[in-house]
Design brief:
Largest sheet: 6 strands, mixed
Structural class: alpha+beta
Helix content: 25-40%
Distance between the termini: 35 Å
Shape: globular
Number of helices: 17
Number of strands: 19
């Protein structure tokens, strides 16, 4: 893909070489320290110091302003999920938006579920919704175990009474926008700490600029370092206002991110999505009228849904046209959200409903390219996950239950999506979305011809390690852990290249690996480690090489086991 005339390579530092390279990051979720170290380790992006200082409250020598730059002959993909799990989401999003604006053809920002689901907030925190009876606010339909708003407020009242804060306030009095947002974050989005993370982020920005939101001219540069412990008092009301501003206002960080983002991107022989390309999602583009609810239409024929004629969407045979249609779906959905962010009078429709649906598996009958996932137990394929997937398909078909798709893993060994992608020159899929242990989980191209790369090192803390070996761990926070993972693609060009993974495992071990070359021509078949991304007996997968050993994983669901074996033992135990 050619660089745009707007690309600013003249500002880029000299790269280690002019070798073609793609950098990939995903699911940082507001973890600012994790992002800073990722940039430091990257061979694709870097920081450039500002040649001017934006208007700030702090003295100039206490803080530096920088912006991300892209090195020559490189591309950068951010795989989605920018917010929710750390106190740095606004700075992270603004940094990515600035990079995209300056390198529009070589930077791709993908949407994740945590980016799209904020479209709910303007309608669900609206004055009209706040006036509704508490009993009328439904539980999240996709989670049978979630609490209702009423149950949540009852818990708040009980806690306040136990703490001596109130004398049994009525639920109606407790039903404020602040508590409504806390409920949404905790019980419908699975991020109970996000409210306080945002308060901390506003404090930091206010300390730097003297106001929040900062003026528009500050958005292009990112404040780095020089922070004292935030001391500004930020009210609950200001936190709520921030969430609404960042998604609703044209200058809001998340709103700008969505406006510049894509559902899928292709660079040469590699396709990027947030979730998964499987037999359910391949070729399918949903109707923009799809509702964020339990579907009323019957499920597709799961034996071969990619061949069925559907009334709830389209089947597109060409991969490149499919990607273009998905990205247009996003643009049209955002346009719809912009025109009508609130509920209609009947509360049956709101703008952006189709975007909320595509990030929700039940709404899509399991066909969410944003939220389907490969990862299970820290690897890309387990026998247990396949059994659960088969049972989910049966339950969905026989009981007409779309909730059967929650939590299942896609089948990476399915030849159908692999053959479809290969037919159109795609040899690699790169995704994020679901935790993969303390390093990327890879499926070798030896299995289907398509290499699958899944990376999200959230929750990478290893409880199996003795505490004495974990001194200083969890350095990226409670829900991030200690591991850091880098994924890059390097080679001759966009059609002849290999995967590189590097970083630090949860045990503190540094690693740097090269995988075999993928090429439309013969290429160098000897290059790279041909044992990585392959399965051993008893469910173990080869994930990382640190000579003279390999680091292995196996597991199920959120349970992950780790092992270290000699390279000789691994070579003798390969299943294929």
């Amino acid at each position: 893909m050619a660089s745009s005339s707007n690309d600013q390579d003249r500002h880029s530092p000299a790269a280690a070489s002019d070798q073609f390279r793609i950098g990939y990051m995903s699911d940082v979720e507001g973890h600012w320290d994790y992002f800073l170290e990722s940039v430091q380790r990257s061979n694709v992006i870097d920081w450039e110091e500002a040649d001017c200082t934006p208007p700030i409250k702090k003295k100039e020598n206490e803080i530096k302003f920088k912006r991300l730059i892209l090195r020559p002959n490189t591309h950068f993909i951010y795989g989605g999920d920018t917010v929710d799990k750390g106190p740095g989401d606004i700075r992270l999003v603004r940094s990515l938006v600035s990079l995209k604006k300056r390198y529009p053809e070589r930077v791709h920002l993908l949407v994740g579920n945590r980016d799209l689901n904020k479209i709910r907030l303007p309608s669900e925190l609206s004055e009209s919704d706040m006036k509704r009876d508490i009993e009328d606010i439904p539980k999240p339909f996709w989670d049978r175990n979630a609490k209702s708003l009423k149950e949540y407020l009852e818990d708040v009242r009980a806690k306040e009474a136990a703490d001596g804060i109130s004398g049994g306030a009525s639920l109606e009095k407790l039903n404020t926008k602040q508590q409504r947002l806390r409920y949404i974050l905790k019980h419908t989005l699975g991020c109970p700490d996000t409210f306080e993370f945002r308060r901390e982020e506003i404090q930091i920005l206010t300390e730097i600029y003297g106001e929040y939101p900062p003026k528009l001219e500050t958005h292009d540069f990112t404040p780095i370092g020089g922070f004292d412990e935030p001391s500004s008092d930020i009210t609950d009301e200001e936190v709520v206002d921030s969430f609404l501003y960042e998604i609703s206002d044209a200058e809001g960080s998340l709103r700008q991110y969505l406006n510049l983002s894509q559902i899928a991107a292709i660079v040469g022989n590699t396709i990027f999505v947030h979730g998964a390309i499987d037999s359910l999602t391949m070729k399918f583009v949903p109707s923009l009228g799809t509702k964020f609810e339990v579907p009323t239409l019957p499920p597709p024929p799961f034996a071969a849904p990619y061949e069925a004629i559907r009334t709830d969407g389209r089947i597109i045979e060409n991969v490149h046209e499919w990607v273009e249609s998905l990205n247009n779906y996003l643009k049209q959905g955002l346009k719809d959200f912009s025109h009508r962010p609130q509920w209609n009078d009947e509360r049956t429709s709101r703008g952006g409903e189709g975007l909320l649906a595509i990030q929700n598996r039940p709404s899509m009958w399991g066909r969410s390219v944003v939220c389907n996932s490969y990862a299970d137990g820290g690897v890309v394929s387990t026998d247990d996950a396949e059994q659960k997937r088969q049972q989910a398909l049966l339950t969905a078909q026989e009981q007409l239950d779309p909730l059967a798709f929650e939590g299942i893993a896609s089948n990476v060994m399915d030849p159908a999506p692999a053959q479809w992608l290969l037919k159109h020159g795609i040899q690699r899929i790169v995704v994020g979305h679901k935790p993969t242990g303390d390093c990327p989980a890879v499926l070798s191209s030896k299995y289907t011809g398509v290499e699958i790369v899944a990376v999200d090192t959230s929750f990478s803390h290893r409880k199996d390690l003795h505490e004495s070996e974990n001194i200083g761990m969890k350095r990226f926070g409670e829900n991030r852990g200690e591991a850091i993972a880098m994924v890059e693609i390097a080679g001759k060009d966009a059609l002849s290249n290999w995967l590189e993974t590097s970083g630090v495992l949860a045990c503190g071990t540094e690693y740097s690996n090269e995988f075999p070359i993928l090429s439309s021509s013969d290429g160098n078949k000897e290059k790279g480690d041909h044992h990585l991304g392959r399965k051993l007996s008893n469910g173990w997968w080869v994930k990382v090489a640190v000579p003279p050993n390999y680091h292995l994983c196996r597991g199920s669901g959120r349970f992950i086991e780790y092992d270290i074996r000699s390279m000789k033992d691994v070579m003798n135990d390969l299943i294929m």
